[in-house]
UniProtKB/TrEMBL annotation:
One annotated GO molecular function: ATP binding
Taxonomic lineage from the root: Bacteria, Bacillati, Actinomycetota, Actinomycetes, Micrococcales
Family annotation (SUPFAM superfamilies): P-loop containing nucleoside triphosphate hydrolases
PANTHER family: SPERMIDINE/PUTRESCINE IMPORT ATP-BINDING PROTEIN POTA (PTHR42781), SPERMIDINE_PUTRESCINE IMPORT ATP-BINDING PROTEIN POTA (PTHR42781:SF4)
The protein, known as: ABC transporter family protein
Listed SMART domains: AAA (SM00382)
Organism whose genome encodes this protein: Citricoccus muralis
Keywords assigned: ATP-binding, Nucleotide-binding, Transport
ABC transporter domain residues: 1-209
Length: 209
């Protein structure tokens, strides 16, 4: 079982949020600006240590921080994929190398295996023909497709999406939303969004702050 159960308390930001996500489900997290949605994702990704809280993913503890306990799994060992509004890609690496980079950590042995796996993922998200381009040589939609491949290629047990469609041109949003609906099926996911169309297309359950 790889469902998520978490609580994140960051008093200096006025954040105290708790939620659970069943294995394989997508939870949409919506709420006003400043209500702590991105803070919660940062804690789950391991980028920010809450003052108090816990996060359990299946039988693993990502963190458990109280007055008396301090368990903290570093970001690189969490097996959590994080997709942000602006694609997080290395500008000096090709699309293929960007995707392959994460596969070293995911335990895919051998350069050729990683290259093939990266190419397969780029094909799957519709940018197989751009494998040798760098992010600066792609459109916003193409770069976000590459970032989706990068996040999913390593087989994350939890996927975090922070407004993944907000920075894209309106005309490519429906295609990328459809792609996300396909690739997120069966994955435990927290999706932060302000857009009802994302909730309808992608979410199994909604948590409104
Ligand atoms: N790096 C930071 N340092 C200090 N305070 C921050 C930082 N980032 C966010 N905050 C504050 O923490 C609170 C929660 O912000 P957060 O970005 O998590 O909200 P959000 O729900 O994601 O908002 P939005 O919908 O605008 O993206 C806000 O009051 C914000 O001003």
């Amino acid at each position: 079982m790889t469902g998520l159960d978490c609580r994140v308390v960051v008093p200096e930001r006025g954040v105290d949020l708790a939620l659970t996500v069943d294995e394989g489900q997508t939870l949409a997290l919506t709420g006003p600006n400043g209500s702590g949605k991105s803070t919660l994702l940062s804690a789950l990704a391991g980028w920010l240590r809450p003052e108090t809280g816990h996060a359990r993913l299946g039988d693993r503890t990502l963190f458990d921080v109280t007055d008396s306990r301090d368990t903290w799994t570093p970001a690189r060992r969490r097996n959590v994929g994080y997709l942000t509004q602006d694609p997080l890609l290395f500008p000096h690496l090709t699309a293929e190398a960007n995707v392959a980079f994460g596969l070293v950590r995911a335990g895919v042995v051998g350069r050729r295996n990683r290259r093939n796996a990266a190419r397969d993922w780029l094909e799957r998200v519709g940018v197989g023909q751009l494998a040798s381009r760098r992010p600066g040589e792609m459109s916003g939609g193409q770069a976000q497709r590459t970032a989706i491949a990068r996040v999913l290629a390593s087989g994350p047990e939890l996927v975090l999406l922070d407004e993944p469609l907000s920075a894209l041109d309106a005309q490519v949003v429906p295609q990328i939303r459809e792609l996300l609906a396909e690739v997120l099926t069966g994955r435990t996911t927290v999706l932060v969004t302000h857009h009802e169309a994302d909730v309808v297309a992608l979410a199994d359950v909604v948590h409104r702050i």
